User: Fold this.
Amino acid sequence: MEHARADAHPYPSELAAHLASLVPGHFLAVDVGCGTGQLTRLLADHFQTVAGFDPSADQIANASPLSNIHYGCALAEDLPLLSRSASLITAAQAAHWFDLPRFYSEVRRISEPGAILALISYGVLKLEGQLNERFKDFYWREIGSYWPAERKLVDSGYATIAFPFTEMTTPDLSIRLEWSLPEFLGYISTWSAVRSAKQSGRIDLLETFATEMAELWGDSAQRHRVTWPINMRTGRI
Assistant:
């Protein structure tokens, strides 16, 4: 899966608090496609038990343990949980990889009455001023064609996918960091689209972008704000 994992993207604590405020009980929350557990850990502050599942054994092996979190390798469409056991089911930056009809069937099976499903994603990052203008050109025009097709679902905040649940309004939340130029460019280098561009012989796109961003950035150690809007489709089961 391509989760740009959130050692780079720490979700705000307000996200978990909001989700916990919606549910009928706080015995079990389930984080599907949990990766290394960035959201899972936040949920652990609000639930007696949190189960985090990911199909990648490597991601699970690198997940940070807590006493009330249980991690395991499992597909989103086949979760090793009892029926009617979960108050909250989340999928953060992962639902675009699921077989959604099968996943939704599994969500209905494991949900207790009134449980909440939240499909969470973060949008395209935003910088300040001229930095943002140059970045948008790079993201949408220069490397846009190198993203996998599923990326469009993330960029739209999952707005176009089927969501057959009673949908709820969500608060405006965002991820906010301050990065130096090396931190920013290091993050960009992890993107699958950037790797694909390199493999296609278009390293010039990356070199030109890095050079022009350096000119706009100022001192490379200077920290600029980087923001990702959080998008959610939240529904009651």
